[in-house]
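Z., the sequence and structure:
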Amino acid sequence: MKFRTGFFLGGNRISLLSQIPSFFLSFYFLAFSKLPMDGNSDSNSHESHFSTALPSIYTRQEHKVEIHAEIDYTNPISPDISVCAITLFEPASTFNNIPGGLTWGVDDRVQQTDPGYLPQNLYSLNSSYGSEHQLKALLHKMKQHKVRPMADIVINHRIGTTQGHGGKYNRYDGIPLSWDERAVTSCTGGLGNRSTGENFNGVPNVDHTQDFVRKDIIEWLRWLRYNVGFQDFRFDFARGYSAKYVKEYIEGAKPIFCVGEYWDSCNYNGNGLNYNQDSHRQRIVNWIDGTCQLSTAFDFTTKGILQQAVKGELWRLRDPQGKPPGVMGWWPSRAVTFLDNHDTGSTQGYAYILTHPGIPSVFYDHFYDWGDSIHNQIVKLMDIRKRQDIGSRSSIKIIEAQPNLYAAVIGDKVCMKIGDGSWCPPGREWTVATSGHRYAVWHK
């Protein structure tokens, strides 16, 4: 597991931490998404399979930062939301001007590697980042400001402390959760069963089929949830073990919200990215189904298609059924859309994800480091999404999908276009809400 920290922002404004003692690296924002809970949906989509709409997140490995949105299970309609997250390098002593929300914390355990993705002693919260006492004090301060913390759960693999079967470090003597070789899958050097997912090579992979392993993990997750103070979970490397175990862990620990990182490569042929990515998004949808819809997932399909589409291949943004080609097109309330680099078109990409269904995210460097122009454009797009009531399940009608032109109507109040092609909506009721390099958005 790896902790991260940030804060959730609600209402009509975005407030930043005003006094943070030199420990943050970068931010994310999650754009405003209304989350209907009534189960009304398109009967031809995966939306008909469930009655609640969850928000979601995205991780970027370079900065180890993530974003997350809150789900309110008690209200028929959740409020519009936006999220900001930061990476902490030292524990915080004070948080000021936080309007409330959800957070991530950095790795607060002794790890084999600095990023924290090779865990060992899951119960140790003392590290170079600070002490367990400081971490709990931080989370308590966040709770006072209604900031929700999320833990990044890395339970696919675990570094051993002692050599066991075959001379491999596949035992965990001398630390809590002192498992023996049965806790390690047979395909990664242990005496357990074969993995129920993809192998994470080079390290012992945890055998989730073992009853004692799952019992200990649930106990640890509940400790994080009710003792340490984390409220939400993000499951790292979700391809590594069966989604049914994620369901069991969620039911056992009862976090408020969960998301899985089911990340694999899009489909390619000799000429590059395939147009049809249905099998790719189906794998993500299958994983969500495997959790009994208790978790959301990152929309890696949309990300992969979009970064290719903005290179003069915008025809890729309409699938054969006339819908968006990613998870967003099948199950938008479980799809977290994101851009992670300049290849995804920057403002074109944000004009796309911030006006479309799903739960979009914004990266810190795009928002702050790329200059006032891009910053202001993203702010306008987020504001349009909020004011025009675009949510994770908003309807969409794709009007154009040509090499250099994509245009769509979202709901009944917003339309947009990206690309060099000329297009504008018919009718005097439409007014330009914002425009920029190769994009424009209109509203009624």
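The longest helix spans residues 211-228. Residues 1-115 have pLDDT under 50 and may be disordered.

Let me know what you think.
H.
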